[in-house]
Amino acid sequence: MSRSIARMSALCTAIVVMVAGSTVLAQRAAVALDPFTGYLMAHFTGESANGEQIYLAHSTNGLTWTDLNNGGPVLTSAIGTRGVRDPALVRSPAGDRYWIVATDLRIASGTSWSDAANRGSTSLVVWESADLVNWSAPRLINVAAGIPGAGNAWAPEAIYNAATGDYVVYWATNSARNGVTKHRIWYVRTSDFRSFTAPQLFIERAGSQGVIDTQIIEVPNSLGGYRYYRASADGQITIEASNSILGSWTTLGNLSHLGISNGATGGNVVEGPMWAQFNGRDEWNLWLDQFATGRGYMPISSTNLGSTQNFRTRTDYSMGAGRKRHGSILSITAAEQSRVLARWGASTPVNRLQSYNFQDRYVRHVNFDVRIDPNVNPAQDAQFRLVPGLANSSGYVSIQSVNFPGYYLRQSGFDFVLAASDGTSGFAADATFRRVAGLADPGWSSFQSYSFPDRYIRHFNYLLRLDPITTAQGRSDATFRVTA
């Protein structure tokens, strides 16, 4: 009996230690994040040549947005379709890991919407980071491979599920089920965004009605009566609520009373619902992409998500210079904000590159070729930003176009083109240069190649080339003034 008592005592002690330990871990997770001071939006811009990549914008008040990275893409995909849309920005509960999950789709490549929906990629693209600024290479995750007849995988989202201690990743797939082909929302679970459970059906609307865009937000104090709320584009913008992510959901209504729909009842036709809570207060914005009119995102606000009647439209917002399409918003701490702005927040001056020996001519792009011309029209074709080098940011620069953000001067076979960064190390090397004292005049500048250090940018017959410089003529051709 005494031995049994001793064993029971030891077991109880172990349980107490385990419970205490788990409580400490829960408390640590709960207090790991400092107060939020800003907001970070991940988005894409549209079907332009470089629009289907990852762009970031920043706000201090949740309503006025500033484009980061001089309006250019922050991350680019060179895998899958070589384009990404609908990025979801995810933080771990402890704030020590981040992921971006996006649709693997590039309509700008000439893919039709029918092909993309029925014969498209069934994978999502994932990036991972430990600090929100240094990101892994993108990788493909084939989440829809287990769905019979899957035609695509679109508009992914992810949310941490405290009930199971892992993440629910959900997206839309077009496939046949019960004799009806349409988009439904499916989900998988993961703890590391590398291995996943088999896909399960998450949301299906009645009849032939499909659903593509849906996003869930957690309301920890259950204001309005529920812990989770989701908005879905299913002909309307339908608002639902639940106390369990994978449990049953209650329909609260839609936004038709505000003249807003996803097409079923006309009015302001929108998509891509995107939630964001105002930092420090019980008020939420639901951002809606006015794609039908091309006006981009607009917010509607609520201080109680328990009823759709509580939403109000607002006009006191600004989306910044660039167009913002379907994305997600993350509230960020002062430390996170400081890192993000230090990396991408500074606005690099706009410059021109004036030829030394033809001083009425400036470097410009035309049909993505690069040359020197006088009287450049439009003027932005001769405007560039000298940003930190893509291959080496210490002492090197890359020359980014102003009117084609994300496009850089790069050598290709020692000729120069204006090209969109594809995220590869080869592109980065070919678009990186050391700015040195001018070879013909030290008061001017010359640009030495990173990948071919014996060669410099020069013009020849007015066309830009990358050449070894051995003559006085060559030194003049390779000398430029960086002007405002």
UniProtKB/TrEMBL annotation:
Range of residues in the leader sequence: 1-26
Name of this protein: Alpha-L-arabinofuranosidase B arabinose-binding domain-containing protein
PANTHER family: ARABINAN ENDO-1,5-ALPHA-L-ARABINOSIDASE (PTHR43301), ARABINAN ENDO-1,5-ALPHA-L-ARABINOSIDASE A-RELATED (PTHR43301:SF3)
Alpha-L-arabinofuranosidase B arabinose-binding domain residues: 352-482
Species of origin: Rhizocola hellebori
InterPro entries: AbfB_ABD (IPR007934), AbfB_ABD_sf (IPR036195), GH43_arabinanases (IPR050727), Glyco_hydro_beta-prop_sf (IPR023296)
GO molecular function: alpha-L-arabinofuranosidase activity
UniProt keyword Signal, yes or no: yes
CDD domains: beta-trefoil_ABD_ABFB (cd23399), GH43_Bt3655-like (cd08983)
Membrane-spanning ranges: none
Keywords: Signal
Single GO BP term: L-arabinose metabolic process
Taxonomic superkingdom: Bacteria
Pfam families assigned to the protein according to its UniProt record, in alphabetical order: AbfB
